[in-house]
Amino acid sequence: MPTPSKGPRLGGGPAHERLMLANLATALFEHGRITTTEAKAKRLRPLAERLITKAKRGDLHSRRMVMRVINDRTRKRMSSPADRALHNLFTEIAPRYENRNGGYTRIVKVGSRKGDNAPMAVIELVEALTEATAARPAKKTAAKKATAKTAGAPEKKIRAKKVAEAPADASADVSADADAAVAADTGTDTAEDSDESKA
Predict the structure, then answer these.
(1) For residue 128, what is the DSSP state?
(2) 3-state secondary structure of 36
């Protein structure tokens, strides 16, 4: 989590800052990306990531904790943006990040605002981890374990394998000589021997 910023708050007082960040989080969860100033985006990121982590739990207590932040305090409309954002957060956003541990948002700087030259940024929700990229670290750890086992093997075992292979080659040569001797003893003659016996 980034260190808290020093200096003046956004919007003046603490209550105003809290409401501004809640409205920014509501808009982020409703639309997926928003354009705001860099300072507001940097202050929004930790709040949004905490809310997504709570939504990943999915139980009633987590829903009520998120509702304390994302809540339409006027309740004039039946389907307010806060209700849509809350529903979107728990049904679409949280399941999408089931395999990801943090890092749900991305801040991209986009230049300055035309009127007052304020530095602007886009804060957006990142794509979900695919199953292939989620499974890739598991393969790396398995490969590391396998190399650690072979690297830690003593040289005696390797030498024993080489010694075991060497007699097998020698025995193949011996067996070829034995086959030739057996052929000579059984009377299998070559063409020259047969001509001598006829003469």
Answers:
(1) P
(2) strand
Quick one: 76 and 165 in the same domain?
no
Q: Which tokens sit at 80?
A: 């307010």
Q: 44: which residues sit within 8 A by CB, 6+ positions away?
A: 21, 24, 25, 28, 36, 105, 123
CATH number of the domain within which 93 lies: 3.90.1030.10
Q: Locate tokens 């409309």: which residue?
A: 77
Q: What is the spatial order of strands in the sheet that 105-112 belongs to?
A: 33-37, 119-125, 105-112
Q: Total structural domains in the chain?
A: 2
Question: Both 193 and 108 in a single domain?
Answer: no
Q: What is the pTM of this model?
A: 0.61
d(CA 179, CA 98): 69
How far apart are alpha carbons 74 and 8 in whole angstroms? 28
Give residue-wise pLDDT tens across range 161-180: 555 555 555 555 555 555 65
Residue 44 has pLDDT above 70, yes or no: yes
> What is the tally of helices (H) and strands (E) in the chain?
8, 3
Residues whose CB is less than 8 angstroms from the CB of residue 45 and which lie 6 or more positions away in sequence, other chains included = 2, 105, 107, 123
Is there a single domain that holds both residue 177 and residue 85?
Answer: no
Which domain range does residue 183 map to?
153-198
| Distance separating the N- and C-terminal Cα atoms of the chain | 105
- Within this chain, do residues 102 and 47 fall inside the same structural domain, yes or no? yes
- 50-78 pLDDT, tens digit each: 999 999 999 999 999 999 998 876 666 55
User: Quick check: is 170 in a domain?
Assistant: yes
